[in-house]
Predict the structure.
Amino acid sequence: MKKMLAAVFHKDEKSGGEIKLEEVDIPQIKKGDHVLIEVKASSICGTDLKILKGGHPATDNTILGHEFVGVVKEIGENIIDLKIGDKIVVDPNEKCGYCINCRRGLSNLCEYMALGTTFGIFQNGGFAKYCVLPRNALFKLPDSIDMIAASLIEPLSCAVHCHNIADVKESDNVVIIGAGPMGLIIESVIRKHPIKKLISIEIDQWRGQKALELGADHWINPKTQDVKQEIQNITNGQGANVIIDAVGIADTFEMATKIWAPGARLICFGQDSRAEAIIKPNDIVRYQRKIMGSYIGYAEDFLDAIELISNKVIDIDKLITTTLPLEKLISTGFNQKLNQNYTIIMIEHLQNIQEKQ
């Protein structure tokens, strides 16, 4: 059987685990609704780093990589709407379609998905030359789309979902806490919406400057500035109408509750299951504030993200820091990802990387 290079996760109960580049069998189609795709590009996500550190569960001996795109190489016998060569993007979160949450239109909260179905975390993903996936996990892309840019569609769909939940209005002062990759992608989406002020809160100098480069009107550094006072000055005493916490720890949540305006919407986007915070219910009731979570996204968010990328609405060049071949995923890619001076690191599956007999 032919072999291919793949980045395989090996679990360690104490440390989390490690990822190794290995020669593995090229996957075969075994079901009529499955599709073999040739991966063209994938990006390293912060979740990949959490997996290696033990901060996020993953299946042992699984090929990682859950943000990826490719072209159709083979199709199962039941596939009628795809052909060889079609460009596709992967929705890595497999849903059942029949649990109560799916039936109520909350497919991102699918009970089946909660058991662990994500491709690239619990099932084989995109850090390899080929991957077999069910048809319902694929979105067809325009022939003209750039595949490097398209590999950001999955995280962009999460940002679109967050934007929609926030219900951003033209008169809003919007604050994004955290200018990591997802904070910057969310900023890129919100910046396309006419708003009063867009303010980034970030402790790292390089990322703060990157937030300004992408269109933030102000950058506040909590290490050197009084966040509450700065927000009051910038908003003429109004406070923040929309706050997106893209970090998700206790300190950032409590920070958000010190700068929100009456009637504000606080969107909790970043995740840390260990975080605990205290809030006074009356601060919500008396000033009619809302606290909402934003978790991955819906199919329609994918469709919107595809349009944003295909129409070049988002400045991808300012988001992607480095492009590497799969062979350098570990030696260079993961090491750079640990460096704060990087946003998105793309793994390009180059044509000259051939599978072995």
